[in-house]
Inverse folding.
């Protein structure tokens, strides 16, 4: 009943709600206009109804006071009527916008949706801080784009992140009737696949990097070493649990399976890779220094896998040690070349790397055994 009464005084203009009420006949000489109209600055009927209820209460209280004082009071400014009303956050922060996005768009969505959205927002906040939506500028958006490019991300990845951020901000602007513009809406993102094509790392450079990893012998170097002789994706390595490192089997291997902290890119990404060379050394270091269920707890926990933070840290260390246009992902490119050099069958290459060739026949059978794949991998390692 209360909602129906309050909605009587509401109308919409360009989807934004306004409060409107006629001034009582006996009090009109106090006002320049016969109707009070004020923008509630929201597109939410729930918020508008709540605000309308408070404005109506304040107005009636004021008009009652005005009458019992025989009109001796001056007209009360509308902003005074509104100042004690519950405030709608007209400048929600990016983190607030993310919660709105989850609430309205997350219904029925899988974990990948939430993880990708959270990661995109966390990346913006890490660089630009958690600001009100109207505080971000187009210059900030361009700075964020450049930051992602400097990390070695290709345009398809940068565009995907920007699409997520745009959607999150647009929804809050629409839901709250905000007048600000989306600073990330029209950021130009160049096609980087040709201008910044990731290059494989030459084998002699891989050996030097591996030697430094053994000397420094810390978690970040274990991560690089593990990737260097398995060809794993960074996110695959980061999401590993210590128990995924099968060191005491006849053929030591890493078991790459999805878990709560990270999903896998494709169905073919779920696989077993024999541990040889520096990848075996890294796995042994991780196991011997175990202090958490996850192999790399400084980047991963049961809820989140911070692949972007890891990528930035590893690429910063590698920058002076590898050729231009080589990044942590380049070890994966190199692995394919190294396997070709020892005449590894294409199907085995795809199996080791978790690449999908989209051929029907490739999905038949269980693939090459660990005993077969370790013989080939042993040919490409130094140790």
């Amino acid at each position: 009943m209360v909602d129906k009464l309050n909605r009587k005084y509401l109308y919409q203009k360009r989807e934004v709600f306004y409060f409107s009420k006629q001034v009582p006949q006996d009090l009109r000489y106090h006002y320049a206009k016969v109707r009070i109209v004020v923008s509630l600055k929201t597109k939410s009927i729930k918020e508008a109804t709540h605000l309308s209820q408070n404005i109506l209460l304040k107005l009636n209280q004021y008009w009652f006071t005005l009458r019992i004082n025989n009109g001796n009071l001056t007209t009360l400014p509308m902003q005074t009527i509104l100042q004690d009303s519950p405030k709608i956050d007209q400048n929600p922060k990016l983190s607030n916008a993310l919660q709105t996005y989850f609430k309205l768009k997350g219904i029925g969505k899988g974990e990948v949706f939430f993880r990708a959205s959270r990661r995109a927002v966390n990346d913006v906040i890490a660089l630009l801080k958690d600001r009100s939506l109207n505080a971000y500028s187009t210059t900030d958006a361009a700075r964020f784009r450049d930051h992602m490019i400097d990390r070695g991300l290709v345009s398809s990845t940068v565009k995907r992140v920007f699409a997520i951020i745009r959607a999150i901000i647009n929804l809050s602007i629409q839901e709250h009737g905000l007048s600000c513009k989306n600073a990330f809406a029209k950021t130009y993102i160049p096609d980087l696949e040709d201008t910044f094509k990731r290059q494989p790392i030459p084998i002699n450079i891989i050996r030097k990097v591996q030697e430094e990893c053994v000397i420094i012998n810390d978690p970040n170097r274990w991560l690089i070493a593990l990737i260097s002789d398995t060809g794993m994706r960074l996110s695959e390595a980061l999401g590993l649990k210590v128990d995924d490192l099968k060191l005491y089997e006849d053929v030591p291997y890493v078991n790459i399976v999805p878990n709560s902290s990270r999903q896998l890119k494709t169905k073919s990404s779920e696989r077993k890779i024999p541990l040889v060379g520096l990848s075996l050394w890294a796995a042994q270091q991780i196991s011997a220094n175990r202090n958490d269920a996850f192999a790399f707890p400084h980047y991963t926990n049961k809820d989140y896998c911070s692949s972007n933070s890891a990528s930035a840290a590893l690429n910063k260390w590698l920058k002076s040690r590898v050729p231009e246009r080589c990044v942590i992902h380049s070890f994966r490119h190199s692995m394919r070349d190294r396997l070709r050099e020892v005449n590894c069958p294409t199907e085995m290459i795809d199996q080791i790397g978790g690449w999908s060739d989209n051929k029907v026949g490739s999905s038949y059978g269980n693939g090459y055994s660990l005993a077969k794949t370790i013989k080939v991998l042993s040919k490409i390692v130094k140790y």
